[in-house]
Amino acid sequence: MGKSADCANCQIPLFERACFVEGGKGDKSCPTLREKELIEKIRRIYQEPEIKEFARLASVQEGEGYLERERKPYLPHPGKPRIQEIVEFARKMGYKKLGLAFCIGLQKEAELFARFLRAQGFEVVSVICKFGRIEKEELGVKDEEKILIGTRETACNPIGQALYLNQAGTDFNLALGLCVGHDSLFFKYSQAPVSVVAVKDRLCGHNPLAPLYTLTSYYMYLLRPGF
Fold first, then answer.
1. Is residue 210 part of a domain?
2. What DSSP assignment string belongs to 84-121?
């Protein structure tokens, strides 16, 4: 495989990059220039009919998220919130029954989102993270590792959420505010494709990018190894 990709640190201007323009450049770790065999394998996967149509409509939805694309020179002009794009994509795919897996801490947001989806004509199956009341002791969690030490505490149940929605026969599942790690298990066990409505960030009002904007000032402690 050679040197691992480090695309996050690419210093080549966007319109000169191999991944962005034909004949573009890349550094020694550039996967677009180095991984020809893997890229051909990926191309073959995209030619599978079901995958190809899903990817095509995802790209169509991406383009439709911008306004005034016919104007030249074009300047990026986003025009749709994510919840609108979710509905538009679901319609493109012909989905009728949507699953909503949400965190108990975002119950109000889940209520509003489900209301929005139903107003747009979808059948909605929503299931909370505490479904099944599986206690944390069953997962091997020690008392001192709980949120409320000294109490009987119900664990989040993302596998249960996924299996419930699988059983319900949802076409498309939506994750709202699932915890780090719990979201991973939900993605792993969901049979239907999954999209994320919003991610949880308890401190930053569910905007996990906020600390990055002040990483070299107020949040510079995050750059200290091990914090």
1. yes
2. HHHHHHHHHTT--EEEEEE-GGGHHHHHHHHHHHHHTT
**Beta strand 97-102 with 172-176: parallel, antiparallel or unpaired?**
parallel
Cis peptide, bond prior to residue 211, ω within 30 of zero: no
Secondary structure (DSSP) of 187-207:
HHH-SS-EEEEE---TTTTT-
Closest listed residue to residue 174, CA positions, set 132, 131, 125, 208: 125
Q: Are residues 117 and 36 in the same domain?
A: no
The secondary element (H helix, E strand) that includes residue 54 is helix 49-64
Which H, E and C letters describe 178-189, residue by residue?
CCCCHHHHHHHH
pLDDT tens series, the chain, 227 aa: 568 999 999 999 999 999 999 999 999 999 999 999 999 999 999 999 999 999 999 999 999 999 999 999 999 999 999 999 999 999 999 999 999 999 999 999 999 999 999 999 999 999 999 999 999 999 999 999 999 999 999 999 999 999 999 999 999 999 999 999 999 999 999 999 999 999 999 999 999 999 999 999 999 999 999 98
CATH number at residue 117: 3.40.50.1860
Q: Which residue has the tokens 């909503």?
A: 100
Does residue 124 contact residue 100 with C-beta atoms inside 8 Å? yes
